[in-house]
Write a structure and sequence with these properties.
The structure is a single chain. This protein has 555 residues and is mainly α. The chain is built from 32 helices and no strands. Helix 2 runs antiparallel to helix 3 and helix 27 packs antiparallel against helix 28. It is globular and about 95 Å long.
């Protein structure tokens, strides 16, 4: 696995091996060296990578030709001989002083489990860089996320940048290295130094805001606003400011900024995507779809996310075929999520056979994810009202299970059991989870809520929900459960407080129904009516809302 990860990480910086027939030939060399060169290439072609590296190691000892140097390093990388790759790249650099060799050396050194061994070569690279050093600093910073040992990289980086305190790039590198090991104050100090030396250093301003956001979005937004005011052309900073405003619920301001950025940077896929995302969040689905399609056309870096959102928007306007087309474009890690949404949409539309067929096809495509797709299969059966069949699918998946996914399957089966009115089965599965994971807040909350809502075991329910809330004090689902059990216990003032807090964080039908009922029964009928009617407008077919309004005779 480590060998594979090394290859993949090196691929991201372009250190890919080329095929033998594509490798450049060295020029002006003796017949003997050319003969060894060809022997090395043939060895690599025949899968004898170790022999190829050894031959090129000897060749680069005899010749300083940069083509040989580059190929030697490249073959060492291709054959996952990390130590040889670092040594041969250093030799290539010493012989050629090539900017490309310098970058490879930086990339390999940062990926090393022992970067300290590369201190002297890195010092030499930085000394030699001269006018190219600013670009090298940026490259160094770009490679830091791939660091093999961030804790070792930070002190080394601090020492390497020490002679260059008058260069903003050096402070930029130091800030990034500090941020990687959560030395926030040191990172911020370094960023201030970078900006003092170069007030137009937009990346530094953006990273400073990102770090300050950990203390609160308002502070980060304020600092970005100040920077943007003095640097109105700073596109990345303006984009960051727009996103921070959106996070602060200042959606209209964010939208205006994003629309302006879209006009100024029509070829920016990032801006197009963020505009589409903001429009979607503000209920402007048609405009959002146009922006997202632009982002995809412009080759947005994460097309899967764009297609997921496009599918959701199409589903919201009841265009099932368009939603399915969008979700079918999703690949990679988001494939399962896309297929889940597609199957659930089909099930809600009464197209259960299509939904299950889609799940079967997905299992054939990704058999390793079979268990997760079986959970989706059970979900669509449950949505279609076929609870017993859903229960059976989950029971089959659980047979012989002995890994962590058993918890998810047990939880899913417990939810189905609740719909079958088999609270004994629900309790059995949730307690099975709690037996192995007594701090599992999801299971604690589910069992506590069910006992509060469906039984008279309210004191026991309170104990379970309280324990869950200790683990996740800001979780709106658990706050809702606490409000509901307080209501069942007759503690109406506390119930109202918990439910208000829950609804401020999660405007879901269940929470609205709970808060509306408590408000109604505590004499706040006008507020309850307004809340329930508003929730019903957003969720016109939700049974839980229709039921509570019928019981309370809310019109």
């Amino acid at each position: 696995m480590k060998r594979l990860l090394l290859s993949l990480s090196l691929a991201t910086i372009g250190l890919q091996p080329v095929a033998a027939e594509e490798a450049a030939e060295p020029q002006g060399l003796t017949p003997q060296i050319l003969y060894r060169f060809l022997l090395g290439e043939i060895a690599q072609q025949r899968g004898q990578g170790g022999a190829a590296v050894e031959l090129f190691d000897l060749l680069t000892e005899e010749s300083a030709d940069p083509v040989l140097g580059r190929r030697a390093a490249q073959l060492a990388i291709a054959n996952n001989r990390f130590g040889d790759a670092l040594r041969l790249t250093a030799r290539w650099y010493n012989n050629s002083k090539s900017p490309e060799a310098a970058e490879w050396l930086v990339a390999l050194a940062l990926r090393s489990p022992d970067p300290e061994r590369s201190r002297i070569p890195l010092q030499q690279v930085l000394t030699d860089a001269g006018s190219r050093r600013e670009a090298l600093w940026r490259y160094y910073a770009e490679q830091l996320p791939e660091a093999g040992s961030p804790t070792a990289i930070y002190p080394l980086t601090r020492d390497l940048t020490e002679p260059y305190k008058t260069e903003a790039g050096a402070w930029w590198v130091r800030a990034n290295a500090a941020a990687q090991v959560n030395r926030k104050d040191e990172a911020l100090d370094a960023l201030e130094q970078a900006l003092r030396l170069n007030d137009n250093f937009e990346d530094a301003a953006v990273l400073r805001a990102q770090l300050r956001a950990r203390n609160g979005l308002a502070e980060a937004s304020k600092q970005l606003q100040a920077y943007v005011s003095s640097h109105p052309k700073a596109m990345r900073a303006r984009l960051m400011l727009a996103l921070s405003l959106a996070d602060l619920k200042r959606g209209q301001e964010a939208l205006v900024m994003l629309q302006a950025l879209r006009k100024e940077a029509p070829e920016s896929a990032e801006v197009a995507y963020q505009l589409g995302r903001q429009l979607a969040g503000m209920g402007q689905g048609k405009a959002a779809e146009g922006a997202l399609q632009d982002a995809i056309r412009l080759r947005y870096r994460d097309t899967d996310t764009a297609y997921l959102l496009l599918g959701r928007l199409a589903a919201e306007r009841d265009d099932v075929d368009a939603a399915l087309r969008a979700w079918d474009e999703v690949e990679g890690g988001a494939f399962l999520n896309a297929q889940r949404q597609a199957a659930e949409l089909l099930a809600r539309k009464g197209r259960l056979a299509e939904a299950r067929s889609r799940v079967s096809e997905a299992i054939a495509q990704q058999p390793a994810a079979r268990r997760e797709f079986l959970r989706i299969d059970a979900r669509v059966l449950s949505l279609a009202g076929q609870q017993q069949q859903a229960y059976d699918v989950l029971s089959e998946a659980l047979q012989g299970s002995a890994d962590e996914s058993e918890t998810d399957l047990l939880y899913d089966r417990a939810l189905v059991a609740e719909k079958m009115n088999r609270l004994d089965w629900l309790e059995r599965d949730l307690r099975a989870i709690l037996k192995t994971q007594p701090e599992n807040s999801t299971a604690l909350n589910a069992l506590g809520y069910t006992l509060a809502d469906r039984t008279d075991r309210h004191t026991e329910a309170l104990t379970l929900i309280s324990k869950a809330l200790e683990k996740e004090p800001d979780n709106p689902a658990i706050l809702d459960s606490m409000g509901w059990v307080k209501f069942k216990l007759g503690q109406l003032a506390e119930a109202t407080d918990y439910l208000r807090t829950a609804y401020s964080k999660l405007q879901e039908p269940d929470v609205a129904a709970h808060l509306g009922e408590v408000l109604w029964l505590t004499g706040k009928q006008a507020e309850a009516r307004a809340l329930l009617q508003d929730a019903l407008k957003k969720h016109p077919d939700e049974a839980v809302l229709l039921d509570v309004m019928k019981r309370l005779q809310v019109k």
